[in-house]
């Protein structure tokens, strides 16, 4: 099973700042089958990024993804108040199934 | 508009059985797999398993194999997650989500079904 480790566990920033979230895999994620999801309290997760760097439909361009192999990054260029949430990375390229990281909580400083 | 509409919250006792549902609307149900994800209170996301509604082919996470059953009825665009004997540790929010192929991300999610198991 591919284990995904996200860091930091909690990130405290102010609106307008840049956020950088990390996701590291225990083995290479094939063909960049890596996605990022946003989850707000009381809501279902929402797909932000797939294929490591492609934005999902309707996602603002302040969200960007990068990386390959075992190291991936989600960047939010200028934080808006609605961006404070929990973010999960997910790999979906393993024949054994899918795994999620443990999440990064992005909170207002 | 694509929607996955899940059944309502459930409160059950240990040992009871349960089936929750996820109905797709606004798209061709058989064009997408349905997956189930567990979120225990205050915790992260765990993939449980998936089903292809066109032929009900399923794949389970090793962590959930044998503990739950995933099924689908394509005639009513509905997928199911069921337990034959609930435990207190099954208390969680359960989400369904769709993906076009196994190697695709989950692009639309249901609103979640809260299952509480308590004596």
Give a verbal description of the structure:
The complex is a heterodimer of chains A (109) and B (119). Helices cover 0% and strands 53% of the residues of chain A. Chain A contains no helices and 11 strands. In chain A, the strands form 2 sheets. In chain A, strands 2, 4, 5, 6, 9, 10 and 11 form a 7-stranded mixed sheet that branches. Chain A has a 4-stranded antiparallel sheet with strand order 1-3-8-7, with no helix packed on it. In chain A, a hairpin with a 2-residue loop joins strand 9 (86-94) and strand 10. The mean pLDDT of chain A is 96. Chain B starts with a strand and ends with a strand. Chain B is mostly beta strands. The mean pLDDT of chain B is 97. In chain B, 0% of the residues lie in helices and 50% in strands. In chain B, strands 2, 4, 5, 6, 9, 10 and 11 form a 7-stranded mixed sheet that branches. A 4-stranded antiparallel sheet of chain B has the order 1-3-8-7, with no helix packed on it.
Helix content of chain B: under 10%
Percentage of residues in DSSP E strands of chain A: over 45%
What structural class is derived from the secondary structure elements of chain B? mainly beta
Residue-averaged pLDDT of chain B? 97
Summed over residues and divided by their number, the pLDDT of chain A gives a mean of: 96
Estimate the global geometry of chain B from the Cα principal axes: globular
The percent of residues in helical segments of chain A reads under 10%
Low-confidence stretches of chain A: none
Order of helices and strands of chain A: EEEEEEEEEEE
Radius of gyration of chain B: 13 Å
Biggest interface, residues from each chain: A-B, 25 and 25 residues
Quaternary organisation of the protein chains: heterodimer
How far apart are the first and last residues' alpha carbons of chain B, in Å? 40 Å
Count of discrete alpha- or pi-helical segments spanning 4 or more residues of chain B:
0
Task: Describe the sheet with the most strands of chain B.
Answer: 7 strands, mixed
Tell how many strands the DSSP assignment of chain B holds.
11
> Helix- and strand-based class of chain A?
mainly beta
For the secondary structure, the number of strands of chain A is: 11
């Amino acid at each position: 099973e591919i284990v995904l480790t996200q860091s930091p566990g909690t990130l405290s920033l102010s609106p307008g700042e840049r956020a950088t979230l990390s996701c590291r895999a225990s083995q290479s994620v094939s063909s960049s089958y890596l996605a990022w999801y946003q989850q707000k309290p009381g809501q279902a997760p929402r797909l932000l990024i797939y294929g490591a760097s492609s934005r999902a439909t309707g996602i603002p361009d302040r969200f960007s993804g990068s990386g390959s192999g075992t190291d991936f990054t989600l960047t939010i260029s200028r934080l808006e108040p609605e961006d404070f949430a929990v973010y999960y990375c997910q790999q979906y390229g393993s024949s054994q199934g899918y795994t999620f990281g443990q999440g990064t909580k992005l909170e207002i400083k | 508009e694509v929607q996955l509409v899940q059944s309502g919250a459930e409160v059950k006792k240990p040992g009871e059985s349960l089936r929750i549902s996820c109905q797709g609307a606004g798209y061709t149900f058989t064009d997408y797999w349905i997956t189930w994800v567990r979120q225990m209170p205050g915790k992260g996301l765990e993939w449980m398993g998936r089903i292809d509604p066109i032929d009900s082919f399923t794949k389970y996470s090793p962590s959930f194999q044998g503990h739950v059953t995933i099924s689908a009825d394509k005639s009513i665009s509905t997928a199911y997650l069921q337990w034959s004997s609930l435990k207190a540790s099954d208390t969680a929010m359960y989400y369904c989500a769709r993906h076009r192929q196994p190697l695709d991300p989950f692009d639309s999610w249901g609103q979640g079904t809260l299952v509480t198991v308590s004596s």
